[in-house]
Amino acid sequence: MIIRWAEATDEPGWRRLWAGFLDYYEMSLDREITDFTWKRLMDPQSPMKARMAFDGAGALGFAIHQHHPSTWVMGDDCYLEDLFVDPAARGQGVGRALIEDLAAHARAMGWKRLYWNTEITNTAARKLYDRITPDDGHVRYRLTL
User: Fold this and answer.
1) pTM over 0.85
2) Domain annotation for the chain: domains and CATH numbers
3) Which residues, including other chains, have CB under 8 Å from residue 3's CB and lie 6 or more apart?
4) Which of 96, 101, 112, 138 pairs as cysteine with 3 (C-beta 3.0–4.6 A)?
C-alpha cells in the first residue's frame, strides 16, 4: 500500500470512492459540489487537502483534511473531515494507515492536534478510532446557513 497526496490523475478513483462515501451516509450532493470539492483539493492555495491510499489495483481510500489555528494550543489543529475506505479493502489496515499517515504529516508540520468525528451509529469506524484514541466526549452541532 502507498499513501500519497491526491493528484489530478486520481480524479476518477477519488470520485468512485467519494460516491461510495456518500452512499454509505445515504447522502446525495449536486455534481457542482463534488466538482468544487475536487477543484479545492487540487488548488495549491486551498487549506483542504487529500491523502489517498493505493495498491496495484487502484485507489483504496482517502483522508480529506484541513488545518486551522486553534485557541486551545499554541499552534494549529488538523481536522480530518472525511475518511473513507473502499468496502472491499476494509479490515486490511487502510483506515488506520491513513490516520497514522495524516498524524505523521501533522507532526512534521508542527500542528498540535488531529481530530475528527463520525456518526454515533458508525460502530465499525468507532472500533478503529477507539483503538487509536478515546473519544473526547464532545457532541457536534451544525447550523445550516
Assistant:
1) yes
2) 2-132 (3.40.630.30)
3) 51, 52, 53, 54, 97, 98, 101
4) 101
